[in-house]
## 1
Amino acid sequence: MNRSAVPPPVTMVLDAAEAWLPARMEAVEERLRRLVEAHGELLAADAGSTLAAGGKRLRPMLVLLSAGPGAGQAAIRAATAIELVHMASLVHDDVLDAAPLRRGRPTVVARSGRERALAVGDLLFSRAFAELGQDGSRGQVELLSGASVALALGELAQRRDAFDVSISGQRYLERCGLKTARLFECACLIARAGEDGGSSVGPGGERPLEPGLTVFGREIGLAFQLLDDVLDVTGPPERTGKARGTDLLDGTVTLPLILARDRDGSLAELELRGLDDGSAEAICDRIAATGVLEEVRAGARRRVELAKRALGRSPLDAKQRQLLELVADGVVERYS
Amino acid sequence: MNRSAVPPPVTMVLDAAEAWLPARMEAVEERLRRLVEAHGELLAADAGSTLAAGGKRLRPMLVLLSAGPGAGQAAIRAATAIELVHMASLVHDDVLDAAPLRRGRPTVVARSGRERALAVGDLLFSRAFAELGQDGSRGQVELLSGASVALALGELAQRRDAFDVSISGQRYLERCGLKTARLFECACLIARAGEDGGSSVGPGGERPLEPGLTVFGREIGLAFQLLDDVLDVTGPPERTGKARGTDLLDGTVTLPLILARDRDGSLAELELRGLDDGSAEAICDRIAATGVLEEVRAGARRRVELAKRALGRSPLDAKQRQLLELVADGVVERYS
C-alpha cells in the first residue's frame, strides 16, 4: 500500500499498529492486484483503473484489526473478499447513476460502457466469494452473503424512495443500515467467524454472538454514511471528487434534506425531477443555511462514541481496541 | 412444481425417477418462492413474476440427480443456489439486452427499469451464496463462485466480440464454455462436493476429482447452447418466446453464422450494427439456406453422446446414470 495515497487517519492507524498491519494491508492490495491480472485483458482493462484508484480500504482494515496480529492468511482473504464486494457495489452504483468520476478517475461505466461495467461488477462480486471458498468458513460465507443481500435490498429501497422528498428519517436510517452499515458490521465480524466452520452468528442466524463488535461496525458504518451525505451538500468537489448535490440529482433524499425541510417549509415542496447542476447546488446552499449540517455531524460523532463504548464489550485485547478506536475517530476526522 | 408447465423431457425424467425427484424439485420451488417472499414487497414485486414464469429448472434437476435419492437438505439448498445464480444472470442479461420478454413474460428490466433490475440480479446472486452459507461446504462455495466468475467472464467476452463477424469457432466455443457450460458442470459436481468441507476440486483447484461428471455437465451445457443458438435462427417465436435473429440484433455472433460465412461469402461481409428486425430475419434465412443448421445440430448430438459415455466413468449408480441420460436426451429432444 502506497502510504502517500491514503488519507491521514488511515496512516495514523498504520503507524500505531507497528509492522504487522501495514504488511497485511499490503498483502490485501497484492491479492486485489493479482485478481485483476489473473483474469487477463478482459478484467484488467476495465477494473484495473478502479483498483489502482485505491480508496480508503477502511473495510479490509477493520477485518484485519478485529482479526488481530495472530491471524493468518484466512484474514487476508476475508479482508480481500469484503473489499471486492464493496468495489462490486461501487461499479454497479456507478452504472445506475451513470457517474463519470469516482475518486477523481473515470468510472468503469464511463470508460467501458454499461454492459461491461455490469459484468465487471458481477465478476468482482463472484471473486469475493471465491476468496472465501479457498479457506473461509460457512459462517464467513453466511456473513458476507447476508451483507451482500443487504446491499442489494438497500439499493432497491433507494430506488423505491427516489425523488420522494417526504420520506422519514427512520426510513433513511434503515436504508443506510442496509446499504452501508451491514458491510462494516460484516467486516468487524468476519475474521472472527472461525477458520474451520465456526460461525459468529447463532444457529438460526437470529443473534450475533459478538454484540460489541456488531454495534461497533454498525455505528461507524452509519456515522460514515451520515458524514458522506453531509459532504454531498458541502463539497468541496476537489476534495470529494464529485459535484455538490449529486445525491439530489439522483433523487436520493438524505438526512440533511429530511431535517432541513422541517425548518424551511419551502424545501418540503421541492420537485427533484429534472434538476440541473446549478439548481442542485442552490438547494445545497438552502439546506446548509438551515443549520442542520452541524446537527447531522453531531449525530455522527455520537454514533462514533457509541461505537467506541461498544468495543469494551468485545472480546478484543486492549491494543486491538485502541487501534479500532483510531479507525472510528478517523471516520469523523476525515470530514471535520 | 406444476407438471403441466414443464416441458415433456423434464416430465419424463420426473416420471422415471419415482417419487423422490418430483418431491425434491418441489422443495426447490418452495425455497425459491419463500426467498422472494422473505424479502417482502421489494423483491416480490420485481422478481416474483420471473420466478413464477418458471423455466426448465434443468440445473437444479442435475444437482438433485447427481446427488441421488439418499441426499439430504443440503442438496436442495445447492440446487436452489444454482438456480438463483442462473436467474440472476438472466435478469442481468436482460438489462444488457433491454429485452422486453423472457419465457413469454415481461422481464424485470421491462417491468421495473434498469436500476431495479440490476439490484434484483445482485440480490438473487447474493441469496445464492446465502443458501450455501447455511449448510454448504467450502468446496461448494468454490465451485459456485468459480462458475459465477466464468459467467461474468463469458459476458465480458461476448461484449468484446460483439458485432465482430470474423470471430473464430474456437472463440465462440470458449465463450459458451464460460457463459453456459461451467454452470451445468457446477450443477453436476456441487452436490458431491461434500456436506462437511470436502471438495471435489483438487487442493490447488487444478483438476476435478470427478472427471466423468465434469465432462457430462460440460458437454450437455455446450449442446444446450449450440441448440439455443440454432433456435435463435429458426424460431418459431411462439415456441422460443423471442423474435428470430435476436442474437444478431444484439451483435452476438454464434456458430451458425460462423459456419455459414464460409459457405456464403456475402455473410462474411455483414454489418450487424443498425440491423432492424426485418433484415435480422432475412439474415437468419440466408444462414439456414447454407445448410449449416443441421451441422450444428449434429455437433450438439455428438456432444450429448460424449456426455452419456462420460457418465460411465462417474461414481454414480446405474439408476442415477439412467436418469441423467434422460436429461441429456431431453436437451436434444426439446429442440428436435
Note: Chain A touches chain B through 49 residues (CB under 8 Å).
## 2
Amino acid sequence: MSLIYLLDLCAVAICAITSTLEARHRDLDLFGVLVIAVISGIGGGTLRDILLGRLPVYWIHDPVYVVVGLLAGTLTFFLGRKLALPKNFFLIPDAIGLALFTVIGTSIALKLGAPWLIAALMGVITGVFGGVLRDILCNQLPLIFRTDIYATASLAGALLFIALDAYALNQAAAMLCAMSTIVVIRLAAIHWHLQLPRLK
Amino acid sequence: MSLIYLLDLCAVAICAITSTLEARHRDLDLFGVLVIAVISGIGGGTLRDILLGRLPVYWIHDPVYVVVGLLAGTLTFFLGRKLALPKNFFLIPDAIGLALFTVIGTSIALKLGAPWLIAALMGVITGVFGGVLRDILCNQLPLIFRTDIYATASLAGALLFIALDAYALNQAAAMLCAMSTIVVIRLAAIHWHLQLPRLK
Amino acid sequence: MSLIYLLDLCAVAICAITSTLEARHRDLDLFGVLVIAVISGIGGGTLRDILLGRLPVYWIHDPVYVVVGLLAGTLTFFLGRKLALPKNFFLIPDAIGLALFTVIGTSIALKLGAPWLIAALMGVITGVFGGVLRDILCNQLPLIFRTDIYATASLAGALLFIALDAYALNQAAAMLCAMSTIVVIRLAAIHWHLQLPRLK
C-alpha cells in the first residue's frame, strides 16, 4: 500500500507539472497556475470521493497531496521558463499517471460495494476529471472530448481490472495488468493517431 | 413509485438524446458525446443529492440510470446521422422531462425536511442543472440563462407542487397538477416567445 | 456569533450586487442574473462544506442566505439601470466580504480538525470560489487567475488567522487582525497595481 501511495503522489506531481507547462500559454499569474496545477492533480479523486460519499475528501486530512501539487507547480513555473523540454517528454509519465489514478479509483469504488459499471466509471473519473476541470477553468473545450483515445484507454483498463480482480488474479497482479494495458493503449493511440468515430 | 421510476428513466433518456443531437455540431468524438449525454441526464439529480447530503448519489447503487443514458446516447449517435428529425420533435418530451425532474427533486428535498424555498430550488436544480453542465462542458454560456422561460417554468411548478402538497391534495394529484403547469408554461413560452426582462 | 452571522449575510449581499452589476454586460435575462448573483454569494461556502463533508450544505436549513442573495440581485437588477454608481463604489465592501468569508471558512475547517494548510485553503475557497463559479457560468477565464492580488490576500489573511489563533490571541482578536490584513493587502494591491509574477 505504501508503494501505491508513493506512485499516487507521483501521479499528482506529473499532473501538476504538465498543467503548469500548458498554462504558460495563457494569461495567468503564479497563483492561477498553482490553483490549476493542484486541481489537475487532485480534482479527479475529489469528485470520486464526493459522489461516493467518502467525506471529507481524501486530501483534507492528508495535506501531502496539496503540498506535492504546489511544489511541483512552483518548480515548473520558475524552471519552465528556462528549460526547453522535448515536446513529448511527459507522454509516458502522463500515461502512467492515468493508469494509476484509474486503477486506484476503480478499486476504491469496488471496496465500497459499487456495481462494476459504476466502479469502472469512478476509475475513469479519477483518471480524467482533473484534466477536465483544468480545461474548464482555462475556458477551453475539454481536451479529452476531442483528442486521441484517452478516457477510452482508462475505461478499458478499469474494466480489465474488475474482471481480473473478480475471476482470476490477486489484486496486485490485476492492478499491474490493467495499468500496463492503459499505458499500452494510450501510447499506441498517440503513435498511430487512433481516434474514436465522430459526428461529421 | 414504480411509474415514477420508469418516467424518471425516460427523462434521462430524453436528456441524453437531445444532448447528443446538440453535440453533433461540435468537434466531439463518441466518448465525449456519451459523457455529455449521461451528464445531461443525471447531472441535476447528482448536484441535488450532494447539496442535500444524500450520499452516495442516487445512481451509484442503481447503474440503470447510467446504462439508459449510454444506450440512448449511443443509438442517437449512430442513427442521428441518418435520421432527419423535425426540428421541434423533442420539445414536448423535453418539457415533460423538465416537469418530472422538477417534481421529483422538490419532493425529495421536502421529505428531508428542507424549507419550502430550498425545496423549490432543489426541484429547479434537478430539472435544469444537467443542461447547465452540458453547456459548461461544451464551453458555451448556459442556454437557460438567456433563453425563453425554462427554469422559470420549473420554479413555478415546484412552488405549485409545494403549495398543493401542503394544503390540499394527495401527493400524486399535486405532482400531476404541477407537472402539467410546467409543460403548459414551457410550451406557451416557446410558442409565443415569452421572455423574462433583461438588462439592456 | 450573531454579529458574524449578520456580516456573513452582508458579504452574500455584496457578492450578489457586484455580480449583478457585472452580469449586465452579458446577454442574460432576470433569471440568469439571479442565479449568478446567488451562486456568487454562496458558492464558496457550498464547496467548502461539500469538501469537508458538512452536509447538507449550510444554506439548506437556513434559507435566509438564498433570500438575501435573491433580494440583493433583484434590487440591483432593476435599480442598476438607473443608478450610475461610481466605478469603485464596491471595492471596499468587496474587500471586507472577501476578508469575512476567508476567516469564517478557515475557522470552520480548523474546528473540524483540518491541518493548517488545508484550513487556510478552505478559507481561500470560501472567499474566492463564488467568483470563480460566476466567471465559469459566464463563460469567462476566472478573473482571480489573472488579476491584481486577490486570492493571495485571502491566503495571507487565512495563514495569519491560524497563527494568531494558535499561539496568541483569543479568536475574536485573531479574526479582526486577519480581516484587516486582507482588506489592507487587497486595497494596496488595487492602488499600486501589485501583481504576482507571471509566465511571459
Note: The helical segments of chain C are 2-23, 30-52, 64-79, 91-111, 116-137, 151-167, 171-192.
## 3
Amino acid sequence: MNDIQAYMQETGRKARAAARVLAAATTAQKNTALEAVADILDASRETLAEENRKDLEAGREKGLSDALLDRLELTPARIDTMIEGLRQIAALPDPIGEIFDLKYRPSGIQVGRMRVPLGVVGIIYESRPNVTADAAALCLKSGNATVLRGGSEAFHSNQAIAAAIREGLEKAGLPGDSVQVVQTTDRAAVGAMITMPEYIDVIIPRGGKGLIERISREARVPVIKHLDGICHVYVDDEADPQKAFDVALNAKTQRYGTCNTMETLLVNGTVAEDFLPRLAGALWEKGVELRGCERTRAILGEKCLPATEEDWDTEYLAPILSIRVVEDIDQAMEHIERHSSRHTDAIVTENYTKARRFLREVDSSSVMVNASTRFADGFEYGLGAEIGISTDKFHARGPVGLEGLTSVKFIVLGDGQVRQ
Amino acid sequence: MNDIQAYMQETGRKARAAARVLAAATTAQKNTALEAVADILDASRETLAEENRKDLEAGREKGLSDALLDRLELTPARIDTMIEGLRQIAALPDPIGEIFDLKYRPSGIQVGRMRVPLGVVGIIYESRPNVTADAAALCLKSGNATVLRGGSEAFHSNQAIAAAIREGLEKAGLPGDSVQVVQTTDRAAVGAMITMPEYIDVIIPRGGKGLIERISREARVPVIKHLDGICHVYVDDEADPQKAFDVALNAKTQRYGTCNTMETLLVNGTVAEDFLPRLAGALWEKGVELRGCERTRAILGEKCLPATEEDWDTEYLAPILSIRVVEDIDQAMEHIERHSSRHTDAIVTENYTKARRFLREVDSSSVMVNASTRFADGFEYGLGAEIGISTDKFHARGPVGLEGLTSVKFIVLGDGQVRQ
C-alpha cells in the first residue's frame, strides 16, 4: 500500500468514526455548528481572499482559461453567498429521525420507518471552491460525514474553508473529522476514494461529463451521477400559443449554460407555420442560432441552419437550438425516448389526455406540463437546497436535496409480541 | 464477443424493449396477465411435475444432498402456493403512477412526484424453482421487465414455469419478453448479466452469501443485496421479565434457519441471574446449544459452552445461541455496532428513554422495541410481498416489496409559468 492509499484509508477510518457521532447528533448541535462555520468564514474574509489569491496566481501561471479563473475566484459576493447558504441550511428542517408510515399490523406490532443518514458521503468536484462549504453543510445537516476532494487548482482556497469548517464543528462539540478536505492534489486520492466501500457509502461527483463517466466506471461504491441535460419542449397542436411562446423562449434563453436549458424544440406540424416564425424572430433577436429539420427550414428559410443527426444528441450549453417538426405526440415522445438524456422534458398543451399521457410515459427525472424546463432545480422544487441533480433511477432521481442524502430503516414498536 | 455474451445482449435488448411497454401498461393489463399465468400454471400441473422430475433425477445422479433435492422439488402444495402467490400479487395495489407530495410553489408551479418502474430487473437465484414465478410476478406488477437466471439444477422446472408466464403475458396483450428465463446453464450468463448497465438496471441475487458477495464484487449495475442476518436481542434491566422471556424464546426458536432469527442474546448484568436460568431451561428443552461469556457461564454452569470471539460474528442458522452479559445499554449498543450484520436488532425494556435511544442509535435495517426479531419480514410489515431483504442503505433497506422495485420522478404542472 503506498502513501496516498494509506492516507486515504486513514481519512476514511476517521470519517466513519465521525459518522457514528453525527448520526446521533441533535438538530441543535448540527445547527450550532453550521452557524459557527458561517461566523468563522465571515471573520476570515482576509485569510480566504489571501489563500484564494495564491490559487489564482498559480492558475494564471499555469495558463488556466479566463472562464476557469473566474470560477476559481472567491469574490466578496461569493463569500457572502457561501455564508448565507450555510445559514439557510441551518434553517431547514432536520430530516434525520423523522418517523413516518407508523401503522398497526394484525399481529399487534406497530411498523414504521425512520429517516437515517447514509453514513459517509464522498464529494469529488472541480474548480469552484464554494462547493466545499455548500456540500459539507448539506451532508452535515443530514447527519453524514463528508470526505471532499476538490480540484488541485483550488487547493489553498479549499484548505482555508476546511479550516473554518473544522473550527466551527469543534466549537459545537462535534468531531472535527466530520468534514475532511483531502490534503493532497495527487490524483490517486480519487482512485482510492471511489474504491473504499468500507469507509465511503456514496460518491457524488460534481464536474464535467468526462470526470463523472470515469468515476462511474471505476467506482466500487454507489455514485449519484448527473450526466447530460438534453432537455426537450414539445409544443402540441392544442397548445395555448402564448404559453408555448413564453415557455419555449424561457427554457432556451433564461440561461444558456445550465443543464435544464432546452436544447431541442419539437413542434406539432399543424401549428408549426403559425408558431415558429414568431418564436424564431424572438430567438434570433437574442442571438440564438437555430438548426432545424427540413420542415422547419421550409418555414423559417435559409437563416435556420440544417440540423444533422448529431444535433439531436448534443447538449449545446450555448445559444443554439435544434428544432424538429413532428406529426403528433407519439412522434414527439419517440424522439424524446431516443434522444433525451432523461433530465427534464416538457409538453405545452391544453389537452387533458395528452398531458396525462406525457406525464406518465416520458421517462425523465422531471416531466412538465406548461412550465419551463428551467424550473428543474432543488430550490424551485422546494427542497431547500440541492447537492446535485441525479439522472439515475436508483436511490435518488432529479434534484437531490437533504432527503437524497438519507436512507430509511424500519422500526417496530411492540408490547412483547411474538411471531406465531 | 462469444455466443453466450451475444445471447445475453439479445436477451437484454428484448427486455429493454418490453420494459417500455410495461411502463405504460394499465393495472388491469398487469393483473389480467398475473391471473392468466396462475390459471395456466394450474392447468399445467402435469407438465410441471414431469419437468421437475427430470431435474430431480438429474440431481440424484449428480449426488445432490437431500436438503438440496427437497428445495428443488415442486410438490403439489408448492405449486398451490406459487399459484396463490400470483393471485395475491394481482390483488395488491398498483404502485406505478402513484402521485404524491403535489404542492404549489411560490412561482405558481405545482411540483410532485410520480412512482415509476426501475426498468429491467435481473434476478439471479439458486435451486428453488418457485422463485421464478414469485420474482417475475413482483417485477411485473411494479412495471419492470425481468431477466431471471435460476440454478442449473432447476433448469427444466424453470423453463416450464417460464413457458406458462410467457403464455399468460401474451394472453393479456403484454410482450412475452417481459419475463425472460435465461435458456442456458452456462455460468458466463451471470457474468454477462451483471455487466450490462445498458440493458439491466438492478440485480437482485437470491442465494448463499458466497454467490451474493461474488456478484456484488463484479457487478457494474446496482445490486440489492442481502448478506448475513446476525440479529441481537438486548434484555434491559428495566425489561418486563415475561416479555423478555417470550421475545427471546420466539426470536431464537420459532424458526432456526431464517435470517431474522436471533443469534446473540445480550442481557443486562443486573437481571442476568434472575432471567437467564429460566430462559436457558426453556432453550435447552428445545435442544438449543448455548454458548456464553464468562459471566453467563458463572450463572448457567458448565452445560453452557464457552463462547469464543468468533461466536459473536457467526450466523448459526441452527439451534445454537451465544449469550453475553453486558453492563448497560451502552455496552449492548457497542456490541451490536461491532458484531451486528445490521439486519434486525431488538431491545426489551419498559424504559421510555432507553427505547427511544435504541431506536435512534442502532443502525440496522429493522430496529425493534419489545417485539421478536422474527417479525422482520415483508408480509408481517404489510408490504404484501417481499422480493428480498436488503442489508444495504442505498435505495432500499430492509424487506423489499413492490415499492423497492420502483423509482420516482418529479412532475411539474404549470399554466405557462417561466423562470424569472
Note: The mean pLDDT of chain A is 95.
